[in-house]
């Protein structure tokens, strides 16, 4: 038994595993499903962000009620402002994410094609 025979039984350790399989869609429906999935992720993020704002409001209310008598009621406006502010701060990127979700190669091509048709029609009709 030479020194190389023992090395043949050693197997390499694979890190990372297999690649994800590419999703398959029916012709014409793939774009709709991709955009739908992206919009679902954006909606999920919006829900998480509003929960963060609600948690901030609850924390502030509890703190107010511990500090002074009827504190939660007395500081309601301030605590609401803190919660809404946190919600808005967290969800400020949502419009950009919606735009990214809707901006796909196919949708941009479609818009370009419609604009070209509109331009031709307006030239043909003499509109400026």
By oligomeric state, this entry counts as: single chain
Q: Work out the helicity level.
A: over 70%
Shape type:
flat
Mind describing the biggest β-sheet? none
Mean pLDDT across every amino acid position: 87
**Regions with little confidence, pLDDT below 50 for 5+ residues:** none
Number of beta-strand segments = 0
User: What structural class is derived from the secondary structure elements?
Assistant: mainly alpha
In short:
The protein has 128 residues and is an all-alpha fold. It has a domain at 29-102.
Please, could you describe this protein's structure?
- The structure is a single chain.
- The protein has 128 residues and is mainly α.
- It has a domain at 29-102.
- 71% of the residues lie in helices and 0% in strands.
- It contains 6 helices and no strands.
- The N and C termini lie far apart (89 Å).
- The mean pLDDT is 87.
Features:
128 residues, mainly alpha
Summarize the topology:
Elements: H1 5-8, H2 30-67, H3 71-74, H4 76-90, H5 94-102, H6 105-125
């Amino acid at each position: 038994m030479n020194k190389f025979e023992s090395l043949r039984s050693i197997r390499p350790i694979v890190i990372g595993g297999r690649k994800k399989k590419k999703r398959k869609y029916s012709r014409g429906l793939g774009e709709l499903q991709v955009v739908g999935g992206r919009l679902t992720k954006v909606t999920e993020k919006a829900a998480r962000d509003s929960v963060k704002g609600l948690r901030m409001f609850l924390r502030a209310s509890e703190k107010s009620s511990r500090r002074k008598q009827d504190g939660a009621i007395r500081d309601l406006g301030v605590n609401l402002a803190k919660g809404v502010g946190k919600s808005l701060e967290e969800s400020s990127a949502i419009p950009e994410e919606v735009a990214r979700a809707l901006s796909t190669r196919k949708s941009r091509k479609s818009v370009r094609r419609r604009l070209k048709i509109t331009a031709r029609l307006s030239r043909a009709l003499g509109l400026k």
